[in-house]
From TrEMBL:
The chain crosses the membrane at residues 39-62. Gene3D superfamilies: Vaccinia Virus protein VP39. Residues 99-261 form the Methyltransferase domain. The lineage of its organism: Eukaryota, Metazoa, Ecdysozoa, Arthropoda, Chelicerata. InterPro entries: Methyltranfer_dom (IPR025714), METTL24 (IPR026913), SAM-dependent_MTases_sf (IPR029063). The keyword Hydrolase does not apply. Keywords: Membrane, Transmembrane, Transmembrane helix. The gene is AVEN_199701_1. This is Methyltranfer_dom domain-containing protein.
C-alpha cells in the first residue's frame, strides 16, 4: 500500500534534458526527419557533383598535369618551350608525325631475312629481327653481330650464326649468369649497354653497365664494322641511341634493329628527332617496321581516350 501511494503521488520528472532537450524533440518530430533527409540528400548530391568533377579532371587535365611535372626533366636537356600550352599542342601534333615515320618506312628492300623469334603466350611471334640483304649491304664473310637484351631468348643470336656464320656477342645484365660461351660462335657477357660505365641496382640486382664505345674497345672491335646491332633493352634504347649518335658510332654499323617502346611521357618531338638522326647523321635508311603484337594497344600520354600500339620492331640498313 505504501509503495502504491508513493507511485501515485510521486512528482513528475522532466527527462528532456537527459535526451538533448529541444534537439531530441526536433529529431523525433516529423518536420525534423524531413529536414534531416533534405540535408542528407543535399550532401549526397554534392558528393556526386564533386566526384564527377574529379573524374573529368582525371580524364582531361591529368595528362596535361603529368606533362607539366615532366617539364623539369625535359628542361634539364636544354629543351625549354615558350609556354606549357604551346608545348602541349606542339607535342600532340608531333605525335602524328612520329607515327607516320614509324609506320611508313621509305627505303626499299627486295630481299628481307627474318631471323629468330618464337611464339608467345598469345601464339604470336616475338623476338624476331629482320635484315635487308638486297639492296642493303648484306653481311660480310666474317660478320660481327652485337645483340643487347637476351632475357634467355637466344633465337635471333642462334639463327644469324647458323645461317650466316656470324660471330655473335650477346649482352644482358639481368639474367643472373656470368660470362660464358653459348655454343659455337656466340659469346655471352653479363653486362648491359648504357650511357655511362658503372653499376646500377635494379630490383635488388646489381648490373654492370658500359657504353657502346667502351664495349667496342674492350672486345677489340673499335676499328671494325658491326654488321648488325640489335637493341632490345626495354625502354632504355633512347638514351643509349642518343649516346651512340653523339659519338658517331653508328657510322660503323650496317644494320640497326631496335625494339622501340614509346615513352610514358609525351615528348614526341624529341623522339622523332632522335629517330631521324639515324638517317641524317649515320646514313642508315629505315626499311622495316612491324608491330610487336605481344603487347596490347595502350593509352597515348597527353591525349584523352586515344589508344594505340606502343611497341614496334624497327630496322635500318646502310645505303
Amino acid at each position: 500500500m505504501i509503495q502504491l501511494m508513493f507511485l501515485l503521488f510521486q512528482p513528475k520528472i522532466d527527462y528532456s534534458d537527459r535526451y538533448g532537450g529541444k534537439v531530441h524533440r526536433f529529431l523525433c518530430s516529423s518536420s525534423g526527419v524531413s529536414k534531416l533527409r533534405k540535408y542528407l540528400g543535399l550532401a549526397a548530391y554534392m558528393s556526386i557533383v564533386a566526384g564527377t568533377v574529379f573524374l573529368v579532371y582525371c580524364a582531361f587535365w591529368l595528362p596535361d598535369f603529368r606533362l607539366w611535372c615532366k617539364m623539369g626533366d625535359f628542361n634539364q636537356k636544354g629543351k625549354s618551350p615558350d609556354s606549357f600550352l604551346l608545348m602541349r599542342e606542339k607535342e600532340r601534333s608531333a605525335y602524328d608525325r612520329l607515327m607516320h615515320y614509324i609506320l611508313h618506312p621509305e627505303a626499299p628492300c627486295q630481299t628481307m631475312e627474318v631471323l629468330g623469334g618464337k611464339r608467345g603466350r598469345n601464339k604470336k611471334f616475338d623476338g624476331d629481327k629482320v635484315i635487308c640483304l638486297e639492296p642493303g649491304p648484306g653481311l660480310n664473310e666474317d660478320c660481327i653481330v652485337y645483340s643487347f637484351g637476351i632475357a634467355n631468348e637466344w633465337s635471333f643470336d642462334e639463327s644469324i650464326h647458323e645461317m650466316f656464320g656470324c660471330q655473335v656477342f650477346s649482352f644482358d645484365p639481368s639474367m643472373g649468369i656470368g660470362d660464358h660461351r653459348h655454343g659455337d660462335g656466340i659469346m655471352f657477357y653479363n653486362m648491359g649497354v648504357g650511357e655511362f660505365d658503372g653499376k646500377i641496382t635494379v630490383s635488388g640486382q646489381t648490373w654492370n653497365m658500359r657504353t657502346f664505345d667502351s664495349i667496342l674497345k674492350h672486345l677489340g672491335h673499335w676499328n671494325k664494322t658491326i654488321d648488325v646491332l640489335k637493341l632490345d633493352i626495354e625502354g632504355a634504347e633512347y638514351l643509349v641511341l642518343e649516346d651512340i649518335l653523339e659519338k658517331r658510332l653508328l657510322n660503323h654499323v650496317n644494320h640497326l634493329c631496335i625494339e622501340i617502346h614509346l615513352p610514358d611521357n609525351p615528348y614526341w618531338t624529341w623522339v622523332l628527332r632522335l629517330l631521324r638522326r639515324i638517317e641524317v647523321e649515320a646514313g642508315l635508311r629505315h626499311f622495316s617496321t612491324r608491330n610487336n603484337t605481344q603487347m596490347p594497344p595502350m593509352r597515348v600520354p597527353g591525349f584523352y581516350a586515344r589508344y594505340e600500339q606502343h611497341f614496334f620492331e624497327m630496322a635500318w640498313y646502310r645505303h
